[in-house]
Amino acid sequence: MTTKRCLSRLVATGVTTLALAALLAACGGEDGEKKAHVPSAAIPEAERAPSRSMTQARESAKVLSAPAAQLREKIELPDYYPADAPVYPGATASQSSQAPTGRVNVMFGSEDPPEKIAQHMETQLSAEGWASTGRQSLPGGTALQGTKPGRLISIVLSRFDEGGPGEISLIAVAVDP
Known about the structure:
The chain is α+β, with helices and mostly antiparallel strands and 177 residues long. The chain has helices at residues 3-26, 52-60, 66-71, 114-127; strands at residues 92-98, 104-110, 131-138, 141-148, 151-160, 168-176.
């Protein structure tokens, strides 16, 4: 594969994966309104009626953004996840899909910072026989990519709720068969 074609695929995959991350960020409440689920038990009974104290209670409660909350959901790693695709230690799969073309997409959440994850994933890609095409900075994240004959793996890392109580890293892995 030529360098120009590889770079083109990297950009296209990075844009696609960031679009997936943006879609995740856009998910929320009804009518497109972004909402984080706050169990009613988290808000004292006296503060449930609309009032200034209710707003103050919500601001002080541990409320996660929609993406951070979704990344904390746990699913089993699907059987179709390739054996040679890395999984970051301690990360939990939160969403997955498989395209008709065979492309596998899995989103993971991790408490660790993206830089630490990137270093580990680069090592794992090499250990699994992927030829690295390098690391690229993207708006709001970092992309790693590797190739094998006729195959491509892309990993996009981003951080949600940075500095907040729900801080979490997104690890989006896309593998072409």
